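Supplementary notes for students who missed Thursday's class. We covered one full example, reproduced here. Read the sequence, then the structure, then the short commentary at the end.
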Amino acid sequence: MQKIQFSKILTIISCIIFPLMAILKLNIGDKIDPILIFVFLAMGMFGFIEVLKQSTKNLLIPYITMQFMLFIISINLAFLGPLGLNFKLHTLAFGFGFLMASYAIFKDFKYLWKNHMIFRALLIFFVLNIVYISCSYYSDFLSSSTVDLFIFRKTGNLVTRNFNPTEYKFLIYMTSLVPLITTSLSLLVFKNMTTKEEIYKKFINILWIFLLIFAIFNVFTLLSAAVGISAPAFKGIRLTWKFWPGTQMPTFFLGIFTIFFVFCQNFFRNFQVQSNQGAINIILNIFILVNSLLIVLISVKTALISLVLSLILLLILLKKNNFSFTVFNLSTVNSTNYIGLGIILLFVVVLVQYSEFIWYNLSSRFSNLQTLYLRFGMWTNLIEIWKDNVDLFKLIFGFGIDRSKEQAFLASNMIPRADIVPNVHNSFLEMFYEYGLVSFIYFGAIIHILMQDIKTIISKNTDKMLKIFSTATFIIIIYFLTYHLTDGIKVATAFTFFSLLGFLESLKFSLKQTILKESS
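Structure (token representation):
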């Protein structure tokens, strides 16, 4: 009883103190009635505390938050920033995820360590990353004014990166911290599932949540354009939108979820698990079309190539295991699918209408090999520097965190291209140069899952449901590896990939446990 009373008192005190601190920090007391803003913040604090309490029982909320961190970043950029509200919503979301992941690791450490190699590898990599930072084995290149001066000299645009040493160290931590947090949360999503029916039901419920979030985000995107906060525009032949943070992160996100949604369609095509599949398939069709069209218009070649390659591999693997394959699942004729077919035809009409522009867009991007030559130049330069300066210590531990960006800067500084940024544009070279053989801990865990998936897929005695989900993780890993052959791993892409990978690994592990239980 005393414990309950103490909890209530602590909650009330928190809902008074933290809103007052927020009002002072945000410095908006002279713009908005302080009493009004206090009431809203206090209500938000009560809600946040309730979410924390529920999340200790079910980690689905923090997992979803980490999975869709890119959306939170986008909303912060497009709505809160222009309105002058410096809430840094993505920072609050990350803090929430970090808090819940710490709780999850503390509570379920034995389960995670024993059953999931990817957790063990990412935890070890995180600890080693702390050692690198503690020993100052990193570059302060990005926190210096060198990059700003370079961009100013190239473009005439003054850029400010006001990193202090503490902030910059935190950004370096994100390389290993984000994968650990997102994986820890997602690996526990299907924990304690005891039957296939429970697993199927939870998977479908989470898929509905995914689709709802996509729908809400698309509504926010359209609203931002309607009210004039953010509008789509073409920069050259690339679609840009203030609502999105850059072009690389959105295309990776859209691509990986396009693959996931196509997989879900094939899952439903091959396993009849519930009666309202028609409605799900219509929504899946819409988002596959929208995502694919956006990827084409944004015109990131790596995303397009990775997406096409992944879908071809998905087709081959499904056919190899005698699964039927579809991209738009309209296998049954009913009123629901007529609606879906009508939506598809509408998109086809739009594509035909703008086919000339889209074809020009794609042909211009793929006929221009300047960016490829640029990347080859940076890769060759980095390899030559590595060969000239490597020793046993650097072979094992690398040259230090972010050192590759210094070399990319030196190479790009000699190339007459205004929009180049200091980045190696190859995650494998970048990680190996900076971490040496230690980087194999990071990528080794991913490759381990890939190899396990191959064994499951080619096995003749494996459960068919396990095979199809192993195909999903295999394809998503292939997409991730292919995409990052020509791009660096961004924090936002790490949120997306490791959350989805851990989610599917959690499902597969629970499925294996139920299969073993049923067979015994």
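Commentary. The longest strand covers residues 232-235. The chain has a mean pLDDT of 78. If anything here is unclear, bring it to office hours.
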